C-alpha cells in the first residue's frame, strides 16, 4: 500500500489517501486508543478555511485531512500531482466499510448532529443493517456554549466511544471539535456533515457513480438549489487567486516541499488564536438548526 502524503492545494493542506487507507487509519487509532481528528476538504471548506480562524485551527490540529472533492482532485492532476478519483474520500463511499468494521470489532460509535425528529430514524436505519452495533445518537440542536454542551461532554466521558461522528455542518462542527478537543475522550473524531440525514432518508442520496463521474454536485444542486446555489456558483470565484498562486508555485523551478513532505501522521500540530463565539458561526450543513428554514 502506498504511503499517504500531504500536499498543498488552494492554500490548504490535504492528504493523498484512499478511503480504504482512511479506514485502516481509523482502525489503527481505535486500537491504540489515541484521540485523533480526521478532517476533510472540499471547495466549500477551502472557502471557509480562508474566512474563519476557527476552521484553520481545527485543520492544523487534524491528524489526517481527506480530499472530498472531485474538482480539487482534478485541479491537483492539472498541477502534476499523482491523484485520481480513487483518492476522493466521503462518508457515502466508505460508510459500508466503516459500519462493517464497527460491527465486527465492537466499536462504540457516538453521532452528534441532525434534527431531533430524524436522529432516531438514522439510528434505526443503520442498526437494522448492522445488528448488534453499539451506536448512540445526539441531536445537533443544543446550546453549544451552555449547560447542554457540558452535559454532552459528560455523557461522552462516561460513554467513552471509540469513534465520534460530528454532523453539525461547516464550520460549526469543526469549531465545536476545536473548542472542546481537550475535553473529548480518546476517540477517533470525524466531521461528517449531513451524513445521518442520508441515513434517515430525509436527504436525497446521489447514486455513487455520480461522484466517480464528477457529477455529484449537480445532482445535489438539483435537489437543493436554494441552499447550494451560493456554494457551487459564487464561493468558487473567491478561490481564483489561490489557483493562480498554485500555478505560480509550479512555474518555480525549485522543488515543491509538498511533494516530499513526511507521512501525514508525523506532521506537527500548531495552535491558532482569535477564536470567536461558536454560536455566531452559520452552519451550511443539513444537520443544524440554521438549516431548518
Describe this structure in words.
The protein is 45% helix and 14% strand. It is globular, with a radius of gyration of 18 Å. The strands form 2 sheets. A 6-stranded parallel β-sheet has the order 4-3-8-7-5-6, with helices on both faces. The protein has helices at residues 19-32, 43-49, 53-61, 70-78, 91-105, 119-129, 147-159, 172-180, 195-200, 208-212, 216-223, 225-233, 240-251, 257-260, and strands at 5-9, 12-16, 36-41, 64-67, 108-113, 134-138, 163-167, 188-191. With 293 residues, it is of the alpha/beta class. Helix 1 runs parallel beside helix 5, helix 3 (53-61) crosses helix 8 and helix 11 (216-223) crosses helix 12. A hairpin with a 2-residue loop joins strand 1 (5-9) and strand 2. It has 14 helices and 8 strands. The protein has one domain (5-202, 234-272).
